[in-house]
Design a protein that fits this description.
- This protein has 17 helices and 18 strands.
- The strands form four sheets. Strands 2, 3, 4, 5, 6, 7 and 8 form a seven-stranded mixed β-sheet that branches. Strands 1, 9, 10, 11, 12 and 13 form a six-stranded antiparallel β-sheet that branches.
- By secondary structure, the protein is an alpha+beta fold.
């Protein structure tokens, strides 16, 4: 395998880092450079590597012995596991330089940075030597792309306003929502808000659900109210209710008024319950089927991508109407049982008559219920016998862990 002396930063992101023994250290999340005066190429200071428990550490470039196409190799020695803190004069290539607007010196045309190349010199140092830029196209088409030397563009060393985020978001596309939320928190505040603004509603809703409440409120507050309402509609109703419960009543009611009536009503129902009860933890959108539904229909429903694994573990059978609060609750069917029965069998014929939770059940009762029956989701039924929602195990864990557990995990 040939060791590269030039590497493109977007391709480094996510590569596995190995120590000399071949043991996995972590994954590359960014490259740190030091911008210099004038047109001198920035010096590469090191890599930001995510290790166990999502802690991000700094690995000096002098410790890197090879940048292979599929991995980064380190020299022997002890790694400093102190959490990475960006210092004055340091710039994150992925986090701060991608999507930066620059001017191509030769033509004077504007362009956007879409990638950057680092290159090893004869002395063994690494420099950020080249940038890939894309000029704006006409009539919505993609413009020309160029690879240019560092000194062939201007605008990289200057403070930026209105910096886009499309390329950075594309780099993070493969991250799940929790990892994307973690990556977002590692960005400078200004950049964090730019990235949140550029995400689509569905992606931002998923990421918000994985952020600490204070960060959720801050990001929501940077959005226009109509956009904030759209994002809340895309969130799981229980997550949206938790977030809105932290807002001032005036702001909460204004956002609810801007939401679609059906979506807002689901959230309003959840806001009625105390947050440490089954009603406060549940989602109002479990998989609900009519008594005459077949197992084939049930399996088709739980295959839908937007349904979380815990909610897909079982379906709930109720008489019409099928929206919560439903008609009379009849029982639930576990996915494992459904897989063992003929597809044409009615779901109502394989129901478990497990006693459901009540909305007012406290956290201690809910955890005892989950432990007793070895469940990952549980039905919640009101005094009239109607299904009002389902509690999933991840919601229970959220309430058992300390309020700042996400922040503690980020700090390692």
């Amino acid at each position: 395998m040939t060791t590269a002396t030039r590497a493109y930063v977007s391709r480094l992101a996510g590569l596995t880092v190995f120590d000399p023994n071949g043991d996995r250290v972590g994954k590359v999340r960014d490259v740190v450079v030091g911008l210099r005066v004038g047109t001198a190429c920035p010096r590469v200071l090191g890599l930001v590597v995510e290790v166990v428990a999502r802690r991000r550490i700094f690995v000096p470039m002098g410790r890197v012995t090879a940048l292979d196409p599929g991995a980064v190799l380190l020299a022997s020695g002890t790694l400093n596991l102190k959490r990475f803190e960006q210092r004055a004069g340091e710039t994150l290539v992925l986090g701060e330089l991608l999507d930066r607007r620059v001017t191509v010196n030769e033509s004077g045309r504007p362009a956007t940075v879409v990638d950057a190349a680092i290159e090893q010199t004869r002395t063994g140092d690494w420099l950020l030597s080249r940038v890939a830029v894309q000029e704006p196209g006409r009539l919505g088409r993609r413009g020309q792309s160029h690879q240019l030397e560092w000194d062939e563009v201007t605008g990289l060393a200057l403070p930026q306003t209105g910096q886009g985020a499309e390329t950075l978001i594309a780099t993070y596309r493969e991250l799940n929502a929790a990892d994307m939320a973690h990556a977002l928190q590692e960005l400078p505040i200004k950049r964090r808000h730019e990235v949140a603004e550029a995400m689509d509603d569905v992606r931002l809703a998923d990421v918000l659900g994985e952020l600490p409440e204070t960060e959720q409120i801050t990001i929501l507050g940077t959005l226009e109210e109509s956009r904030a309402a759209d994002v809340l509609e895309e969130m799981d109703p229980d997550d949206a209710a938790d977030l809105l419960s932290e807002l001032h009543a005036v702001d909460r009611n204004r956002l609810l008024e801007l939401m679609e009536p059906d979506e807002a009503e689901s959230v309003r129902q959840l806001l009625k319950y105390s947050e440490d009860t089954a009603g406060g933890m549940m989602t109002s959108e479990p998989v609900i089927l009519a008594p005459d539904a077949t197992i084939a229909e049930a399996l088709a429903r739980v295959r839908q991508e937007e349904i979380t694994p815990s909610l897909a573990s079982q379906v709930y059978v109720c008489r019409p109407p099928s929206a919560t609060p439903t008609g009379r609750y009849l029982g639930l069917a576990h996915i494992q049982r459904l897989l063992r029965e003929p597809p044409s069998t009615l779901v109502s014929g394989v129901l478990d008559d497990l006693e459901p939770l009540k909305p007012e059940a406290p956290l201690a009762e809910v955890t005892h219920y989950f432990a007793t029956y070895n469940l990952v989701a549980a039905p919640v039924v009101d005094a009239q016998g109607r299904l009002v929602g389902a509690v999933s195990v991840d919601d229970v864990l959220d309430h058992l862990l300390p309020d700042d557990w996400r922040e503690r995990a980020r700090r390692g």
